[in-house]
Design brief:
It is found in: Membrane. It comes from candidate division WWE3 bacterium. This is Disulfide bond formation protein B. The chain is about 80% helix and about 0% strand. It is an all-alpha fold. The protein is flat, with a radius of gyration of 17 Å.
Length: about 80
């Protein structure tokens, strides 16, 4: 298979999936991403004892609160949740 055909096929599949995703599902996906990132970062630092770099600390500062903020916005049905 030609690589350009492969990328066209992937583009078509992604477009079809994007049309079926509702905005509410994006909120749950954002929460899942924040949750997984937080759990994995804690696993690396607390279980494996890998010291985080400076950039990792900045990422954690902004990622950890999202685990609590996004579900609160979902429960409150906040119309401005996309700004979180």
């Amino acid at each position: 298979m030609n690589t350009s055909n492969y990328f066209k096929m992937i583009g078509i599949i992604v477009t079809m999936l994007a049309e079926k995703i509702t905005p509410k599902l994006y909120y749950y996906l954002a929460w899942l991403q924040a949750l997984v990132a937080s759990v994995v970062s804690l696993y690396f630092s607390e279980i494996l004892h890998w010291p985080p770099c400076t950039l990792c600390w900045y990422q954690r500062i902004f990622m950890y609160p999202l685990v609590m903020i996004i579900p609160l916005g979902i429960m409150r049905k906040d119309s401005r949740l996309y700004t979180y």
